[in-house]
Amino acid sequence: MLELLATRYAYVAFIVLLSVGLYMVIASQNLVKKVIGVNLFQTAIFLFFVASAYVEGGAVPVVPKDSAGPTEVIVSPLPHVIVLTAIVVGVALTAVGLALIVRIYTEYGTLREDVLREVRSDD
């Protein structure tokens, strides 16, 4: 078991990041901490995709014109492209979320979820 954990450390990091991110989203009352938790959760998913796409001894998927074909194992670039696209979308969503949090703070003067619920129920 210890040898498996030592060789698959990326999956251990994935589980830790996923757990911490999910805990922050569920347990924290602060909206900024929730956004940070979502980003940690998202980073864990990115790490999982990249770690699962790793091929031991894999080559670049570029084959010269004069070659008959690949003679070795090649690595698929698709998971890395998907992760790169997800990173761009994640940054945009984080920016929108933080902009909304700034507006909430200027309107209500707090970032705590429970206080916001009380203020909204009084209106």
From TrEMBL:
GO cellular-component term (any): membrane
GO molecular function: oxidoreductase activity
Transmembrane segments: 6-26, 38-60, 80-102
Top-level taxon of origin: Archaea
Keywords of the record: Membrane, Oxidoreductase, Transmembrane, Transmembrane helix
Principal EC category: oxidoreductase
Primary residence: membrane
One protein family per Pfam: Oxidored_q2
UniProt EC number: 1.6.5.11
Localization in the cell: Membrane
Membrane topology: Multi-pass membrane protein
Alphabetical list of NCBIfam families matching this protein: PRK07375.1-6, PRK07375.2-3
Protein name as it appears in the record: NAD(P)H-quinone oxidoreductase subunit 4L, chloroplastic
